[in-house]
Amino acid sequence: MTALTPDQALEAMPYCRTLGVAFTAIGTDEVRATLAWSPERCTIGGVLHGGALMALADGVGAVAAFTNLPDGAIGTTTVSSATNFLRAVRDGHVEAVGRPLHVGRTTIVVETDLVDAEGRRVAKVTQTQAVLR
Fold first, then answer.
1. Total tally of structural domains belonging to the chain
2. Is residue 1 part of a domain?
3. Tens digit of each residue's pLDDT (9 = 90 or more) over 14-56
4. For residues 74 and 87, what is the distance between their CA atoms, to the nearest angstrom?
5. For residue 99, what are the contacts with CB-CB under 8 A and spacing of at least 6?
6. Helix, coil or strand: residue 130
7. What does the pLDDT read at residue 1?
8. Residue 126, in any domain of the structure
9. β-strands 107-116, 121-132: how paired?
10. Where are the alpha helices (DSSP H) in the chain?
11. Is residue 93 helix, strand or coil?
């Protein structure tokens, strides 16, 4: 298991920093981060872009996998990601909560829920991370 601070997570993933992701909690059982709505992150109609939501979930999943690396591993990489979008986000922020479903020698599977500022589910993401040695 590898400990990571929010600043270290953003240092390791500069795209997440550029996007505006803020990690709020990092543990082996759960990782949390937020992304604020802003017009620069939107698609037509002022809706937070799906790519921004997926990037938030992918960053949270990567950190959740990294904190659960088995002995001898040096990192992870996403090999599969499935996203179900459930509602649009037109203001406020989105919080992502990622939890490992499976921690193995060769893969780690993380499930991430994205909820809006009112606590309504925005998307569900399941991703598989390959363990790098």
1. 1
2. no
3. 999 999 999 999 999 999 999 999 999 999 999 999 999 999 9
4. 36
5. 29, 30, 31, 64, 110, 111, 112
6. strand
7. 65
8. yes
9. antiparallel
10. 6-12, 14-19, 50-66
11. strand
